[in-house]
Design a protein that fits this description.
The chain is α/β, with parallel strands linked by helices and about 375 residues long. It contains twelve helices and 18 strands. This is FAD-dependent urate hydroxylase.
Length: about 375
């Protein structure tokens, strides 16, 4: 049996590993000639790590991951600690440490695990057809690739999604711009084993530890969509947005390399529940494009990959039936995550100022138990519980 996977990102490569695990041949078709991850890093929570463990790359992920032992929130302007607590209770309860990981490192590792001979870069799929015997990907160069199923793991702007749904979907702007990158894990910024966040006025500055003594930083600024931004003035933009913020934030600003900083307008897509069309199914952002506010976008793609392989391995009524069972398992779970991330986004970024002020007050009174409970709620519900 052969699977065609469209997209060589984290979803596509993890899907390939899952399909190989159950004995399928896999060919990945990727439109670009060089895969460049969107964003500097990713927080792989325990559910995502468990999936990668199952897919056979757990040791590699652990080597790439940062030691995130604790979590803290600070007042944006005074720098005063709002709450600070260990993540050990979370790890003990769910049975797996989370790992913040540099996206470039993770992407290279997953592609290496799949193998270059199974990935065709610079290969654009322009159409899909299928019949009772299989599915065909029609390529921009006029050639065709045939398989028994096709997985659309081609991201938030997915062409395969349009084929499955019969038309385009609308992306929804979440109201903020995310700036992200990597900096050295300097002590004047924060502890090297802690996820540190500074919040105020509906904005956020965050640093997470990744391997090689680096911090992954992300800065959230509430801005209109489509606002012009130039690389040459990016440092002035950032220092202006965060003028008056606490000394650790200013240390971060000084450490940022603007030439390697990403600026992303954050969107999501309204959840939908049709993921399959015959022998074609969606996976990852193609099926559930979300904001990053609960850190579950990549984790959900890894869950998809595991569930897909399980349904194909354990159901014997044919490929189409197995894909429908995959859809039934994954669409409700990811819809809930998309909406939960949207709700968290609105509170964090001041959509309702009273709700955001109430959240700040809650943080100041928190011992971390409620925050850990919220993180755990996001983690549970996937293939591994």
């Amino acid at each position: 049996m052969k699977a065609i996977v469209v997209g060589a990102g984290m979803g596509g490569t993890s899907a390939a590993l899952g399909l190989r695990k159950i004995g399928w041949d896999v060919e990945i078709l990727e439109r670009v000639r060089e895969v460049r991850p969107v964003g500097a890093a990713i927080s792989i929570w325990s559910n995502g790590v468990k999936c990668l463990n199952y897919l056979g790359v757990g040791e590699q992920v652990a080597k790439l991951g940062g030691d995130m032992a604790s979590m803290a929130y600070y007042d944006a302007f005074t720098g005063a600690t709002m709450t600070q607590f260990s993540l050990a209770p979370l790890v003990e309860h769910v049975g797996q440490r989370p790992y913040p990981v540099a996206r470039g490192d993770l992407q290279r590792m997953l592609m290496d695990a799949v193998g270059a001979d199974s990935i065709r870069l610079g290969t654009e799929v322009v159409d899909v057809t299928q019949d009772d015997d299989g599915v065909t990907a029609h390529l921009a160069d006029g050639t065709e690739v045939h398989g028994d199923l096709l997985i659309g793991a081609d991201g938030a702007h997915s062409k395969i999604r349009q084929y499955v749904l019969g038309g385009p979907t609308t992306r929804r702007y979440s109201g903020y711009v995310n700036y992200n990158g990597l900096v050295p894990a300097l002590p004047e910024i924060g502890p090297a084993d802690q996820w540190s966040q500074w919040v105020g006025n509906g904005m956020r500055v965050s640093v997470m530890p990744v391997a090689d003594e680096r911090f992954y930083f992300f800065l959230d600024v509430v801005l209109p969509v489509g606002l012009p931004s130039e690389r040459a003035t990016l440092r002035e933009e950032l220092t202006g947005y965060f003028a008056g913020w606490a000394p650790p934030v200013q240390a971060l600003m000084a450490a940022i390399d603007v030439e390697r900083t990403n600026r992303v307008e954050i969107h999501d897509i309204e959840p939908f529940f049709t993921w399959t069309k015959g022998r074609v199914a969606l996976l990852g952002d193609a099926g559930h494009s979300t904001t990053p506010d609960i850190g579950q976008g990549g984790c959900a793609a890894f869950e998809d990959a595991v569930e897909l392989s399980w349904q194909l391995a354990t159901n014997t009524l044919g490929v189409e039936d197995a894909l429908r069972r995959y859809e039934a398992r994954r669409a409700p779970r990811t819809a809930e995550l998309v909406l939960r991330a949207r709700g968290r986004c609105d509170v964090t970024h001041g959509k309702d100022p009273d709700a955001t002020a109430a959240w700040y007050s809650e943080l100041r009174a928190s011992d971390g138990t409620d925050i850990i409970r919220g993180i755990e709620k996001n983690i549970v519900g996937g293939p591994f519980g």
